[in-house]
Amino acid sequence: MSEFSTGETDFLLDGRPVRLLSGALHYFRVHEAQWGHRLAMLRAMGLNCVETYVPWNLHEPRPGDFRDAQALGRFLDAAQEAGLWAIVRPGPYICAEWENGGLPHWLRGRARTSDAVYLGQVERWFRRLLPQVVERQVDRGGPVLMVQVENEYGSYGSDTGYLRRLAELLRSVGVTVPLFTSDGPEDHMLTGGSLPGALATVNFGSDARAAFQTLRRYRPDGPLMCMEFWCGWFDHWGGEHVVRDAGDAAEALREILECGASVNLYMAHGGTNFAGWSGANRGGGALHDGPLEPDVTSYDYDAPIDEYGRPTEKFRRFREVLAEYGPVAELPPAPAVLGQPDEVLLSGWAALSAVLEKRGGTPVEGPVPPTFEELDVDRGLVRYEVDVPGPRQPYPLIARGLRDLAVVYVDGKRAGVLTEDDVRLGEPVAGPARVELWVESLGRVNYGPRSGEAKGITGGLLHERQFLHGVRATGLRLDALDSIDTLNPVNPVNPAAPVDPADPADPVNPADPVNPDSSAGIGFSAIPGDGSPGLYRGVLSVRGAGDAVLELPGWTRGFVWVNGFNLGRYWSVGPQRSLYVPGPVLREGGNDVWVLELEEAPADGPVLRLRAPDPIPLDPRPTS
């Protein structure tokens, strides 16, 4: 057993000074079968510690419905096996460019305050989650050195009673290792986010000396640490791909270490926002109160280890710097890549209305549109229906408070797409008419004063100045499509036998355009050929399973499942143009593929292509 503590100037392990060279790697953004490789890559870069957040909403999507909360413990075991210490940041709020900053959509009370209702829910969650951290602390023979209290709280609030209550809760469940906070190196952030008795750390991307000088004005003693060294950045849909020069980032890292500080690379390896868990930010400068900026599926972050787990030029530059401060391990064997490219054979289609009928929630009707939260939709879409009375002349149709994007149909015909910034339909609507609005959440805000805001049509539906009442709404959660076993075509003669899509003798044949999928209850038909949105299904033949890229030429916006694994959102606005397919998701031979297209599919024969990743550009400079 060891003892880890904070001294006047250094971290101490069994009384001896130690520097933490840590890297952020989120277990929930990496396929579990690839944890070992990614952790070995951290060691090969010269790191001795790994840091991870914990997303509450992933593990408790509904109150009391816990989903694999034990994953954190398994990850910490993998870290220890890889020879790494660990830093745990359990939130409850994590930011992380993650849906709602990790907070569940169903929370009651005032989040991130000392509100008793909110804290009661946090306590119940922590008492479920934290025993696996407690038993893996360094003083019990495990890898965990430190645990964070909240996250960047000084960027949000000033309720010191809330931080104090969280610290007390952590101690009451058995956390004995040092507690810490992390905030930006600014006066109001440090005064609002730090807590007596917990180590204060700072987050930044450059100017380490100035940042630590600011910290020292508030904390003259204690080890210096940059808890988030932003060595890259994230991308937004519709924006430009963001990169940071490797040499510039390496010099900024060197400056941190020359200050005698410890560091946590954010991110060492970013991974992927699978299954639509991407968050969103608000533009508008420092106030973060401007237009919605939803995050892309890839969380590559321009990190030193890229989304596919490969070393980049930044990796090599960082390795050179870190080698001056500790041992550097050998690179692990590279993951296998796809052996042979192939195209997905799409064989069936079902309208969105059919999918909603079989997989959606209970329809509700009321005078005003319910929000996603009221319909218990965390990720997914809601169909709103309303009747325009008549006869009446054409007037503008307005979806007030729309969040985030709606495809509108009038009397069954597509009439346009509305966004938060353009809530008025282009063509006026005459009555009587039946209007449908298919609204998608592009990710709840994960940072700033507008985090926690509701999704859906939040301000009512207007026909000119008149509210339209009698709104019918049905929600479709993305996880309703995760169970491939109940979506797969089933051979009734031998349910264990796979269906051969090329064999017309199969009782249930995906190539048969008129035979419905009996197990899903969704009636599939021939692909319409006019680009209609809906659920497309197909088969992919794989030879040489390994990491791959899925290309979607001509598709507009939606989600893809491979063998029941949700790869995440695609969207033609870019900058992301393809989806990462982890090798462990694929299997030799036939693979099931499902595409939920929400806007418009390619009309001239929809196709998806699977190929191996492009080779990563190599740095021609020699490395140590």
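the 2nd protein, sequnce then structure:
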Amino acid sequence: MGGFSHSFLEAADGPGSQRSSWRGWRGRAREWDLVAQALRSAKTGRGGVVLVEGRSGAGKSRLLDLAAAGAAELGLDVARGAADEVTRLVPLAPLSSALGDPGLLWTGEETGATDQRLLMLERLRGPLERRVALRPMLLTLDDTHWADPMTLLALRSMTRDLASYPLVWMLARTKDGGDDRLFDVLERDGASRIALPPLAGPAVVEIVRDLLRAEPEADVLALTGLADGNPFLLTELIRRLRGEGVFEIADGHVRTVPARLPRVQAVTLERLRELSPRTRHLLQVASVLGRTFAVQDLAEMLGEPTHRLLPMLDEAMSAGIVGSAGEELAFRHHLLWQAVTGTVPPAVGRALHRDAGEMLLKRGGPAVPAAAHLLRSAGPGDVFAVRGLDQAAREVLRTSPQTAAELAGRVLELSDQADPEWPERAATAVDALTLVGRLTEAAELARAAMRRASSAQTPRLRCALAYILLLSARPEEALAEAEDMLAGSDLPEPVRDIVEWTVLWGLLSLNDLDAGRRRAATVLTRRRWLGGTAPVGARLMLSRFAMADGRVADAFTHLREAVRISKDGGALPAQQPYAQLMLCLLHRAVRQPEEADLAVRAAEEEIEAAGLTVLAAHPALFRAGLHLATGRLDDAADEARAAMTTAEELGIRLFIRMGLSMLALTAVRRGDVDAAVKHMRKHRSEGPANGMLFGLPWHQWVDALVTEAQGDRERAVEVLRATYTDARERRWAVGTAPLTPAWLTRLALDTGNVPYARAVVATAERLAGDNPGFPSLAAAAAHARGLLGRDPDALTGVVAALPQPWDRASCAEDAGVLLAADPGARDQAVAWLDQALDGYRRIGAQRDAARVRARLRALGVRRRHWAQPQRPPYGWDSLTDTERAVAGLIAQGMTNRQAAERMFLSPHTVSTHLRRMFPKLGVASRVELTRVVAEHCPSLLHEQ
């Protein structure tokens, strides 16, 4: 069936369509209704995801063809791609071909172990977002059961991030053709899932009637059971039997001629048997190259010039076995391809795959296209295949580490462990396993390889092992491995640089600051005139030491020097963002949110530019902390969830703990203690907590806050015992933790631990005195001193000096509590408690607001929970300030990324805001959102 008109689209008018079937597409009206509705919705600005699955021959590709034709008729942009078994090792091959620029994503370069998945996704997402922002679009991908791991990751990520655009995704897979987790995930996110079942009786009758132009008798219909309701096989069967004279047509009815009934059911094979031997031979070789194949490859495999293939190709195309597919040829249906491959004896197939792999390798260029053939043909000891697969594994190591792990694992199976090159091949496998988070396997393999490695091969493996141990939250072992390496005298300078960084990172993770300071001083003395990664690590360590010692200005100096070294190109890309991230923490600690924002943005740019997947979740995590500190609780929760989604998608579970702790803190502020407890329960189940930026102290602080919120103050003090009793721990907590000096002081006083409270106040005052350039420290110390001295005048005098809204509300509450103890100061107490209540309400700190209302009731003043206007669940007034700002930027025509850059958010977070806004406003597209903005707040359309 060819193209169709708008009237055809309009006839399929949703599930209630009166048209149940039509020629060329029998028995699939309900399924087409869903597709047609999605296409019409895209025309009006709404996107969506349609998932199609069924057996081979059920009509999946046909449905995609109809959708593409219908989209073109409606004026949609159309992009089409397909996965297949032969290209499943090439990262993002289906999406790259669909979007028309294979060179954009695939370079085939051999690289080190830096994980580039984040960069790959952004290089794909950016052009697609810009394209769909200009015109509604349909993007179809067929045979996604063959999709490579990067394509699956991209589909999970981009269907969510681009959900607000008029982009319809149609993904098709063969049911039971592999892992269907992608379809399950997308369906949970709201995708429509279409299962194409075997055709029912009426549709079978209609197809037979269409093909034979006569009414089928019972004996004819009995034959159709051979096709088992499969549309493709049914069509093939009827056409074949008609050609063999099995049917007799008379008086508008068709019946069988018993003497000519088929003796075999394999009608597709019958079609092949009618071809000439040379053409069958050609098709067998072509089938090894894949369902789609290049004529040049086929000619080279056959050892024939192209012009000599023309008669065989013409015969195969006339028989309907193959057809044109752009610049290549393709088997007309998956079942035809399977039928041809089934005629190739296994031993011959392996030999042909070996020839195909060798042909592709000898051409030069990337080895990945040859790898699929080599995987199916190589046996133990096949040196040529092993080298080709090893090269392919190294090529995709940073772009698709899952594929690299598969290839490298096969290489090791085929290799002799006595081969001198085995340790190098094992090192590639170690890197791949590390990047996909299979750390236990990676460590075991690294140790096995070290036992067989030469002196030249060992350093790389030991470096990899130390890094694995750090990621596994085993810093003591990592440190021991690195120290042992440094004890040798034959380390190349680049390796020594990385190992020294590893030592510093291990000491930071262990919070062994004295040893870290000595090591940092040694590194800077030895490498005074050299750049490198280790000097950056040394500066980070010295900054951490200075902050723990209460020298804030020195901490900033060291971090700025680390940034300078990194910008001068003196550090590995994977280490560069840490300086900016620690700058963010320090600016946040001294209540400088704008500077902290800029540091996060700088780190994010470095992470994206270098494609540092392992750090992909960091920017959102740090923004969550900043929003929490400035009282933007909704934004804090959104950023935390965005970070966790990124970590989950990329398999970086190390940072899911941090997202959970941020959600727990946000829940405590909101007064949802049950939710906070659930987050912490999941937090503990995620495993160890050691890490350079998010180590054990942070998680203890969060645990203490949640425990106190549950009412168990004694246990909270016990959790923080080291903070109260160790001077350095106390300085670090007072200077950098989410636990303000006042909170620590109040907890100590409430539990009768007055010496603890005095120690905290003394530490806060010393920190403020030693750092006069940071007034927020002085204000925090004054708050704590006012609590300890029970001095309401001191507290009322410092409220305005506290830079963050929760701190001000907390200080106002403390002042009100002390004034309430004086009968003559009741009115003042009520005034300060009202100020505290207003401050808590403004930031959504419901638990704190409820506590203040209780204090006011004790003074005979009732402030009802609904005294201030509450945000409704739906409509324009239901939006947060951030959501309104996002809505305004989108209404101005900005893409998600442009809006994210304007607001210092991540694109993931902008997408999250849009997905939450749409149901609140009752809209489903950016066009409808623009109308709502124009109606309720037109000024947002013109703000710059």
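Residues 561 and 648 are 34 Å apart (CA to CA). DSSP finds 48 helices and eleven strands in the chain.
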